[in-house]
Amino acid sequence: MNIIIGNALKQGRNILSEMESKQLIKEIGIQTTEMKLATSKEEAVKFSEETGYPVVLKVASFDITHKSDAGGVKVGLKNGAEVSRAYEEILVSALKYNPKASVQGVTVQNMVKPGVEVIIGMTQDPQFGPVIMFGLGGVFVEILKDVSFKVVPLNRRDAHSMIKEIKGYRLLQGYRGQKPVDIDYLENILLKLSDFVDKNSSIKEIDLNPIFAYPDGASVVDARMVLN
Ligand code: ADP
Ligand code: MG
Question: Could you give the CA distance from residue 176 to residue 115 in angstroms, rounded to a whole number?
């Protein structure tokens, strides 16, 4: 069994942290941000300096699922003073949001350039087993429910049609002078995830939200996995 998954199960956890989830994503060859867990302000500044500014700080707690709702995400931090302040603010608002939350610390990661926001997920269907989902991020998924689904395992043609099927496909093809995004790379993410869940029966849910899609490649900005 994979070390990260085994370790979580040994600790009696079925939720993987953003850092653990991104580690798994990276192991299967999908581009994501490098991140470190800081347990003090000084450490957060040290990690930020190593990473290179601008950085993003996020609360690390298994009791907080939606980090922004808890005031737990600070983006675009440009120097040590901003990182120190953000570290404190994150801890204060996270504990105000959920006084019972146990907080491991604050993660530090590089801030990636903006792209077209897409989401990719995986859930277990009682009838069909693991199913992969693709959609555009933000209002497209929350309000318009513009998503497509396919049962694992996916082949190249499935991955291609999942992306083409969504109503907002034109946004990926480039509109109003924007360059088209790298559809091949998104297909590869879908195929790699399909293969990963096919081989790891302990994965119950995956949520990559958002992924920033670029004309050349893409970057997974937030990740979450749940085990059986
Ligand atoms: P939440 O738990 O609230 O979903 P996210 O990790 O998705 O938290 O962060 C919230 C938002 O902050 C993201 O939707 C994205 O717009 C921005 N963001 C997060 N991490 C990064 C990053 N490394 N680079 C650039 N933007 C980021
Ligand atoms: Mg998110």
Answer: 15
Tens of pLDDT, residues 126-184: 999 999 999 998 777 778 889 999 999 999 999 999 999 999 999 999 988 889 999 99
Q: What is the CATH number of domain 34-110?
A: 3.30.1490.20
Q: Which CATH superfamily is domain 10-14+114-227 in?
A: ATP-grasp fold, B domain (3.30.470.20)
DSSP states of 94-148 as a string? HHHH-TT----EEEEEEPPPP-EEEEEEEEEETTTEEEEEEEESTHHHHTS--EE
Cβ 227 vs Cβ 29: under 8 Å: no
Ligand nearest to the CA of 90: 1
State the Cα–Cα distance between residues 107 and 102, nearest whole angstrom.
15
What protein residues have CB closer than 5 angstroms to ion ligand 2? Answer: 209, 222
Q: Whose CA is nearest to atom 5 of ligand 1?
A: 222
109 touches ligand 1 (CB under 6 Å) = yes
Report domain extents, the chain: 10-14+114-227, 34-110
Whole-Å CA distances, 28 to 32, 132, 220: 11, 16, 13
User: Which residue minimizes the CA distance to atom 6 of ligand 1?
Assistant: 222
pLDDT in tens, 161-176: 999 999 999 999 998 8
Pairing relation of β-strands 147-151 and 129-136? antiparallel
Topology match between the domains 10-14+114-227 and 34-110: no
- Closest residue by Cα to atom 7, ligand 1, is 222
Q: How far is the CA of 129 from the centre of ligand 2 (A)?
A: 24
